[in-house]
Amino acid sequence: MKRAVLAAALAAVATWAPAQQNESAPVPGAPRPLQIATPQEDRLDNGLRVIVAERHGTPLVSLRLVVRTGAEADPPQRAGLASMTAGLLARGTRRHGAPALAVAAETLGGSIDSGAGWDASAVGITVTTPRAAEALSLVAEVATQPTFAPAEIERYRLQALDGMKVSYAEPGTLSGLLAMRAVFGDGAYAHPADGTPASLPRIARADLQGFHGRFYRPDNAVLVFAGDIDLAQAMKLARRHFGAWKAPAQPLPKAVPAAGTPWPAPAIVVDVPGAGQAGVSVTLPAIAAGSPERYAGMVANAVLGVGYSARLNQEIRIKRGLSYGAGSNLDARREAGALRAVVQTKNESAAEVVGLVNEQLDGLAAAPVPAPELAARKAYLTGSFGRRLETTQGLGQAVAGLAVADLPLAELSQRIAQLQAVDASQVQAFAAKYFDKARRHVVIAGESAAFSQALKAAGPMVSLPQGDADLESAAPPQPR
Amino acid sequence: MGPIWLRRAVAVITASSALLGFAADAPLKIAPVAFNERVLANGLQVIAVPSSASPTVSVQVWYHVGAKDDPAGRSGFAHLFEHLMFKSTAHLKAEQFDRLTEDVGGANNAFTGNDVTGYTDLVPSNHLEVLLWAEAERMSNLNVVQANFVSERAVVEEEYRERVLATPYGRFGNAIAPAAYQVHPYKRPSIGSIADLDAATLADVVAFHARYYRPDNATLVVAGDFDPKQLQAWIDQYFGPVKKPDATLPRVSVVEPRWTADRRAELHGPQVPLPAVAVVWQGPPVADADAAALRVAAALLSAGESGRLNQSLVYRQQVASQAGFDADLRMGPGLLTGYAIVAGGHTPEQAGKALLAEVMKLADKPVPAAELAKVKTQMLTSALVERQTPNGEASALAEAAVLYGHAGEVNAKLEQLRRVSAADVQRVMRRYVAQGHKVTVTYSQGSDK
Question: Does domain A40-242 have CATH number 3.40.50.10490?
């Protein structure tokens, strides 16, 4: 076999004409800037806020009714209530049973997608433009007239419990859930949004009806249209399908404090026998979505761990081959936030990976990010942001995110400029303020025999058997 | 030309008629993709489709080589090789593709299938020329060094651990093709094994590139914001000089015989919270005339909440917590795979029996017209959703050109879908399922051997 490929330049040049011209990359021309229009909005008489982000060219519309309350409003002992409420919306209304609702939505070409996360519960669907009116009528029906039939509640509960058996067997999931518990401590953001195996059986029909009655109301909701539609058309549809929706007389309940006091920082290990890898999290309390430091935070997080070429992936995957992917995410919620570095690695490498993550957190605080690296990470951030808006679904989610976080809609068109304006000193200041060693929470789920010795050598550690990871408890696990 | 999906009757329709519901019963029409196609003298197939909806452009190169072409004793090699295409070339440093994409606001990725290996770049449109240059460069001048080879192989082994060992149903998914195929190379898992990956050498890399990474074994697709004339000039400039080797391209010619008996396989793993079961039948190749009807059958069984398997196994009988059916059609012999993750308190036998009964109903009785119309609308809407972005549109075209053998299939496929009748669905389910032999794979907690 010919070795032309690896004999490289010499053999190859002969085949290139004109060779000179092709040896170095051509220089890019002038960019065509991305124009992002600020979404339009209006309000119905009942208080429902209606937002429209237009994107024509493809005859698709994404519809989304967003309730500005989510899992942070789960009462004590009822973790998962918001999630279960949203999940049951399309499982039966005064007019239709669950199978009929599924057929109706899917006959329009889309699927009703409902769920609750932090600060919000939502029900949405994406359909072709001619189906938008019927789709909105279905969204209105499931959001405002769910019946929470006892048989559906039981069915949902069993399915959710089965789902947890599966997700709790994943080292990455287990590590992530425990990390959020450690960072938000006794706050309302700390528990798993989907609930726990212990909390779901406690949720009764009255809890679901109560949650729906208290929070699903027009003055606590936003209706988002994204795609091939304009404001006048959207308002006409909104009035027709949501005009009769009334807010209850009692005021909206006050929110409980969401941030909480973090657990003390010993590393937590969950032993998962036979785990194929260890799930490693290093998590720290960070900023709320509306923080004035949000752009610096997004850029700092991007330098650390967003995209293939960010520092964590450079060090852990590209240089050392220790993982298929290492990264970080900034989870900025309405009242508080967390930044989490996430890596899966073979069990034997878990302690080494923790050390590498710590080095990168230290490094960002210790020295300014070099200009070319900063420019590259900002380009990656702004590019991904722009691409997200290329689909009606992505556009709708971005707009809903702003509304949920109480941010102005103009932020959509200004975000790229704001990210570009962040400089190296702001990134370093952000890292110095938030990445301090004492604020980091290490959680590893995996086969602990392979890494606990090495981890213990690096600092205090608490170890738990797989079944003892109590995600409901606001109290930190005790060494035994 | 304007955005590809602009179709007057739908997109320019006015609010008073379209949005108030009168049009909902009209059949969903999707404008055809208006692409341009040519073949260079060196055999490179080029497909272009312009759109100015956003200032981005997708550049994709799909090579007609996949896991089925893994050398003997080197399962997983085509995929390992795909990772190495991001390492150095004569004029590019390792990871410089990331400099040319991520660092300017773009993105890149790659995938290895059973039949193809695809490289996808998405960049701001002013970077199009740079990416064409870079793709031509790695097609011609790959130059991987030992240290990068070793570290990237470790990454692929971590990928194996993450996707096969660390996810509860990773081992299960990975075991289905090996249990089903009798002789075809599709029998080997495309991710390979740690032992085969460890056995690979840099010499294997050189040989593989020389054998398969050549212009007459590749399809270049460009979709998005560009000037069509300028694009073709750049393609001539950068890809035109890439030499077509004289050696014949090796092709897999193994024929999978008709399965003559039902078979079973039992598999265990250390973290299996709920058992699972799969029932697999032999399917035709992707370009077969029966493929459209089989895709419709799969959608009837498993698309959305209203799919038959979800309604029957998950909702009504509650024997499964998840159930689906996949028409896993390939360039060679395909698989039709029904699967269920068993609900707590039930057994794989119960779920498998219910799965089988539901699948057989499609062979026994014609599907009602409304249900058939429902899945067609679901499938057409999904196609439209996929094609909103330059990347989605390029992928749809590349798949048509490479897997189906001609780019026009991107449009023809939707036409064939519209024409599938209830009788067609019943006929193909009789032929491939009712009259075929099946392989049942069960998966539960425990250890093998």
Answer: no
